[in-house]
Amino acid sequence: MRIDILSNVPELIRSPFEASIIKRAQDAKCIEIRLHNIRDYSSNKYKQVDDYPYGGGAGMVLMIEPIAKCIEALKSERDYDAIVYMTPDGQQLNQKIANRCSLYKNMIILCGHYKGVDQRVRDLFVTDEISVGDYVLSGGELAAAVFCDAIIRLIPGVLGNETSALTDSFQDNLLAPPIYTRPADYKGSKVPDVLMSGNTPKVEEWREKQAEERTKKLRPDLL
Ligand code: ADE
Predict the structure, then answer these.
(1) CA-based Rg of the chain, rounded to a whole angstrom?
(2) Which is the closest atom of ligand 1 to the Cα of 130?
(3) Do 113 and 148 fall into the same domain?
(4) Which of 152, 186, 207 is the last residue of a domain?
(5) Backbone phi, psi, residue 118, to 5°
(6) What are 130-150's pLDDT values in tens digits?
(7) For residue 112, how far is its CA from the centre of ligand 1 (angstroms)?
(8) How many Å apart are CA 128 and CA 162, to the nearest integer?
(9) Do residues 104 and 147 touch, judged by C-beta distance below 8 A?
(10) 83 C-beta neighbours (distance < 10 Å), count
(11) Same domain membership, residue 30 and residue 139
(12) Is 116 in the pocket of ligand 1 (CB under 6 A)?
């Protein structure tokens, strides 16, 4: 999968892609991530990409021209399955959306900043609008990092153990069961005996029951 991320402050999104699972996924060529600074597509001599809103009001708006030029340049090179705009008024991200997007071959993600982008960008180019929750961030970059992380870990070959993304919380509309590692006894707080029993069917049964109980208690809306 190739993901092209468009932003006027790409520095904000660089570091999540430079370590751990996502870095390894890039090194292993499971995923290619390209950051694009929309300032590079500005025809203005000051590299301006934002302007005051028509009709007045507070805040600046990202202009259509640099964004359109960047998207058109990318689209001339390959077909995109989706052009996603990160925005608090988009569809709220969930595991189902992440699963669907993880099957894409090429995707553009546009990060808004300031008051957002000119509506015509949304009308003319954007195919999907995604929010990471009902709160407002300073820009779409951190939201894009969250979205990319949720998708990339689902791509086959990215996680060492192929089954581990399938056993994540939310994959069956259930939260994940509790997990433990050494020591078996921490100052009197012990790991449940069943996990030390070596009896795999019993462990599975215990985990399923715990997942159900946890979901019932913490997120009954999922059931
Ligand atoms: N940009 C600003 N806030 C956002 C949010 N909650 N989700 C996605 N993009 C955003």
Answers:
(1) 21
(2) 8
(3) yes
(4) 152
(5) -55, 135
(6) 999 999 999 999 999 999 999
(7) 8
(8) 28
(9) no
(10) 23
(11) yes
(12) no
The identity of residue 93, as a single letter, is: L
Please give the pLDDT value at position 163.
63
6 lines ligand 1 (CB under 6 A): no
Distance CA 108, CA 73 (A): 12
**Is 87 touching ligand 1 by the criterion CB < 6 Å?**
yes
For ligand 1, the distance from its centroid to the CA atom of residue 122, given in whole angstroms, is 15
- pLDDT, one tens digit per residue, over 33-57 is 999 999 999 998 999 999 999 999 9
CA pair distance 149, 144, nearest whole angstrom = 8
Residue 121 forms part of a structural domain: yes
Nearest-CA neighbor of 157 among 146, 149, 165? 165
Residue-level length of the chain: 223
Write down the residue that tokens 């779409």 correspond to. Answer: 140
Contacts of 29 (CB under 8 A, 6+ apart): none
Instruction: Return the SS3 of 99.
Output: helix
- Cβ of 46 below 6 Å from ligand 1: no
Report the domain count for the chain: 2
CB 86 within 8 A of CB 109: yes
